[in-house]
Amino acid sequence: MSRGWLATLIVVAILLIDQIIKIWVKTSMELHESIRVTDWFFISFIENNGMAWGMQIGSKLALSLFRVVAIGFLAYYIWIEAKKKARWGYIVCLALVLAGAAGNLIDCMFYGLGFEASTASHVSQWVGLGNGYAPFLMGKVVDMFYFPIIQTTWPEWMPFWGGEDFVFFSPVFNFADSSISVGVVALLLFYRKELAKISLKRE
User: Fold this and answer.
1) What is the mean pLDDT of residues 81-102?
2) Which has the closest alpha carbon to 184: 105, 101, 102, 96?
3) How far apart are CA 29 and CA 145, in angstroms?
4) Which of 42, 86, 127, 140 could form a disulfide with 146 if both were Cys (CB 3.0 to 4.6 A apart)?
């Protein structure tokens, strides 16, 4: 299998998994509803109108357009690297980031167009393109994975923090976010040499 086909399969597989989970949550749960899976893991439905951690910088339309451009550049870069026969792992990591970014962009592009608005008292349903709660590129991203805040006490031998209570904050995120995080961390750990030589020129 070529590197290009591998990247394509990864992107398609992640998009399918991501969208199946999101559509199930969107059409099965009320906004802010939470399902306890274990003591440390919940399915909690929220919608994100901005970037990671719920932040919003500038207008929603500008953010969505930026995502479109960034995804286009990343897809083109992966194609170049596949042609240059870059390391397999590097292509996989780039594909993970691309798939995650595209998964969240799909929410912005189509969820507002075709779904009813989710509320704390109403489960949203698909109502057909053009009949939804927001225009094209203005939809909200669906998040659902939640690991509650964990408070722990550092061991006494730990420098600076020994014996002190420390709280780990857990945001709500989705499968696409996980794909991006895994891809970025792996790139920074194992492929810094390739990142330092990034170029959009074909050889």
Assistant:
1) 96
2) 96
3) 13
4) 42
- Please name the residue that has the structure tokens 């995650």: 100
- For 25-42, the pLDDT digits (tens) are 999 999 999 999 998 899
Sign of the alpha-carbon torsion through 177, 144, 117, 129:
positive
Predicted local confidence at residue 12, as pLDDT:
98
Which residues have a catalytic role annotated? 143, 177
CA-CA-CA-CA torsion sign (53, 59, 61, 62): negative
Q: What DSSP designation does 120 have?
A: T
**Average pLDDT of the residues in 100-112:** 96
Judged against a pLDDT cut of 70, whether residue 170 lies above it is answered with yes
Q: Identify the residue whose tokens are 């059409």.
A: 27
The tokens for 133 are 């709660």
Token pair 């595209």 in the structure block, residue:
102
| DSSP assigned state of 161 | T
